[in-house]
Amino acid sequence: MNRLIALTLLFALFITRFTLHAQDASPVAAKADSLLKVGDVAECIPLYREALAGDPENSHLNYNLACAYALSWNRDSAFHFLNLALVGDTSVVVLTDPDLINLSEDERWAAIEDGQIAKVGAKFGPYPKPDLARELWRMKMKDQAYYYHIHVAEQKIGRGSPVVRALWDLKKMINDKNEERLEEIINEQGWPKESDVKGNAAQAAFLIIQHANLEKQKQYIGMLKSACEQGEASWPSYALMYDRIEMREGRPQFYGSQVRFNAGSGQYEPHEILEPEYVNKRRREVGLGPIQDYLSNWDIKWEVEQKE
Question: How buried is residue 206: exposed, middle or buried, by Cβ count under 10 Å (0-12/13-18/19+)?
Answer without folding.
Answer: buried
